[in-house]
Amino acid sequence: MKELAELCEIPVVTTLMARGAFPDSHPLCLGMPGMHGNYTAVTAMQRSDLLIALGSRFDDRVTGKLDGFAPDAKIIHVDIDPAELGKVRRPDVPIVGDCRLVIEALVEVLKGRGGLESQPDRSEWKSTLSGWQEKYPLTYQPAEDGEGLKPQYVLEELRDMTPDDTIVVSGVGQHQMWTSQYWKFDHPYTWVNSGGLGTMGFSVPAAIGAKVGRPEKMVWAVDGDGCFQMTAQELVTAAAERIPVKVAILNNAYLGMVRQWQEMFYDERYSEVYLSPDLPDYVKWAEAMGCVGLRAESPEEVAPIIEKANGIDDRPVVIDFRTDAREKVYPMVAAGTTNDTIIVDPSQGEGGH
Ligand SMILES: Cc1ncc(C[n+]2csc(CCOP(=O)(O)OP(=O)(O)O)c2C)c(N)n1
Ligand SMILES: [Mg+2]
Q: What Cα–Cα distance (Å) separates residue 274 from each residue in 25, 160, 177, 279, 296?
């Protein structure tokens, strides 16, 4: 895929399910598109004249309102399952096959036609993209005194303090979106998340499975407080079997993703979303399950506590990060709207673009 992208200088987006399939550090990588994708990835797809979809399924969380999705784009859709082709968007060129083999064949053909030399000049498109990247990077406001931790800050620290090939697993909710946004994935199969069914409670058991499968790798689960409460008991198994997974709970005391929708689209009529920062006591609960339990409440505590957790290798570790409940995931394409109306972080301007 890297060869194909480089051969024609094609910018690449990786969907939530495909994070890591193409390195985030590559200059052609634009990151994640979709409801909580970054501005450039979303808008590049939206304004594109050709989309080459490799094994992706035009999920509604990526397309937004379907009849307004990428209106000028021709579609080459490659999938091993013929039922996927035309299921959502009619492809101009449907190709049934194993992506790896199809990509290899495409590379062969393009090389035969002279590769990059034979491609039209894309410098204008490239400068449009870098202009968007500069204007609308992922951003958040750092915490002021006493505000609690910003979840994005916790993730940046965790990302920077763990090995490059760490396997990251997440639950479902705001923490999942922030993890996908803020992590830098440079290796395939290092991101494990429930992006199909979106099952809360996924991360703890999935992290245990990942660690058993790849014992030589560091495995971090980034979990929500709500999600953690669903399957945390599996850590008893991890402790008993000495499977040293690490869990970072972004404890915002809420079912944060639902709270965000109630705040933005239901006039702040909060219903059934408040949990509690202290109940259960995650440190005591972790200890009762045979894990090490740690807690961080202020930015200064974050790095030392991650360092401590990284050093524990004989049992699971759980960190209770007390995060700011008011934080929302941006950008956002509201359900039922088109990708043209992406809502960026309030610091980057009012309303949609
Ligand atoms: C089993 C299950 N129940 C309900 C939902 C709907 N849902 C999606 S995200 C979410 C809230 C998750 O809360 P939390 O784990 O605290 O994560 P946060 O959004 O606060 O980061 C809910 C209820 C779901 N995806 N799965
Ligand atoms: Mg939560």
A: 38, 31, 20, 11, 21
Location of structure tokens 């999942």 = 176
Nearest ligand to the CA of 200 is 1
pLDDT (average), residues 116-132: 92
Amino acid symbol at 231: T
* Complete domains list, the chain, with CATH: 2-135 (3.40.50.1220), 151-322 (3.40.50.970)
DSSP string, 95-133: EES-HHHHHHHHHHHHHHTTGGGGSPP-HHHHHHHHHHH
Ligand nearest to the CA of 228: 1
pLDDT tens by residue, 67-116? 999 999 999 999 999 999 999 999 999 999 999 999 999 999 999 998 88
Substitution site in 16, 172, 251, 259 for ligand 1 pocket (most atoms within 8 Å of beta carbon): 172
Interval 229-247 mean pLDDT: 98
CB distance 172 to ligand 1 below 6 Å: yes
Cβ of residue 249 lying under 6 Å from some atom of ligand 1? no
pLDDT of amino acid 145 = 83
